[in-house]
Design a protein that fits this description.
It comes from Acinetobacter dispersus. The chain is mainly alpha-helical. It has 16 helices and no strands.
Length: 322
């Protein structure tokens, strides 16, 4: 119940940022300095994630390469294929910017914290979840820009080169993460004493990016372009996508012979998309594009996936106690 209440608080904060940006958007020189502050917060967040990740858990989890290969397939193949196949239906319904955001969401890596938390709650293979989710985020820093370049921006910006974006994402996300790993023996003891610090940066940096992105979108006329009916279509599209992927992630591991603990891990790591990495990536990849509309699908999908996974993880945990 406490976890669900915490989820609700973050959902309320996200909605609050959207409302705040709608009525009090940040713009001009203030927006420039706000974006710099947001970038620093994101870099600190990934530094803390690096310091938090146990090397022992990584080494133990790396042994399950078949599981990681399947999670990788779901994250960077099945999701994108579904997103691309849905184009004839979704692009007319949502419009190009929102469909781009939907497709961008399909190209993103998995979540880290929630994948591990739900796997632990449902008695899955936690060590493998740590490794799989972390590997997904690291490799996603390179794969996501390439997919965006080829399937989205390549169609509108001929000659778009993802190399610059990959370098920027590496400097913003991967370098701080690696530094955190290297300095873990010195940083982690302090993190244990203040466990809320990672959560504060995790949620705080996302809220800052969402406020900045929606401020820019509102100034550009976001709510004159997105109707209530369009939002409903987007929620339905995200729900259908999650349902399809979850059904596949539930039955495919069984068909392939994975044990129950690994099935739980695959289910939670394969069916989610990261908001924490996704929004900073969008800032770098979609310069000059309607960023508020690009990040709206991942914001909606993120809330749906957490609520659904919370119910499923709780149900599985209770069924194993009986």
């Amino acid at each position: 119940m406490l976890k669900l209440l915490a989820l609700d608080r973050f959902t309320i904060l996200l909605v609050t940022m959207v409302i705040l940006a709608t009525f009090f958007p940040v713009s001009g020189q203030i927006a420039h300095y706000f974006n710099i502050l947001t970038t620093v917060a994101i870099a600190i967040l990934f530094f803390l994630h690096g310091a938090k990740l146990s090397r022992e858990a990584v080494l133990e989890g790396m042994m399950h390469w078949k599981m990681h290969a399947l999670v990788f397939t779901f994250t960077f193949a099945i999701f994108p294929v579904i997103g691309l196949l849905a184009r004839p239906v979704l692009e007319p319904l949502l419009g190009q910017p929102l469909y781009w955001g939907f497709l961008f969401m399909c190209f993103l890596p998995s979540t880290v914290q929630s994948s591990i938390a739900f796997t632990s709650m449902a008695k899955g293979n936690v060590a493998a979840a740590v490794c799989s989710a972390s590997f997904s985020n690291i490799i996603g820093m390179f794969i996501t820009p390439i997919l965006v370049s080829y399937f989205i921006l390549g169609q509108s910006q001929h000659g778009f080169d993802p190399t610059k974006s990959i370098i920027q994402i590496t400097l913003l996300l991967l370098v701080p993460f690696v530094l955190g790993q290297l300095l873990r023996p010195y940083i982690f003891p302090y993190m244990v004493k203040v466990p809320s610090i990672v959560k504060a940066f995790d949620q705080g940096s996302i809220l800052m990016v969402v406020y900045g992105a929606f401020s820019s979108a509102v100034v550009a006329g976001l709510w004159h372009q997105v109707s209530g009916l369009t939002l409903l279509y987007l929620v339905l599209a995200c729900s259908v996508l999650l349902t399809i992927v979850m059904l596949l992630a539930l039955y495919v591991p069984k068909w392939l012979g994975f044990n129950q603990a690994d099935q739980v891990t695959i289910f939670f790591c394969s069916s989610k998309k990261t908001l924490a990495s996704g929004v900073p990536m969008a800032q770098i990849l979609f310069i000059g594009q309607p960023l508020g509309m690009i990040v709206l699908p991942i914001m909606i999908f993120h809330q749906i996936q957490l609520m659904v996974c919370g119910v499923i993880a709780n149900h599985w945990a209770k069924s194993k106690q009986e």
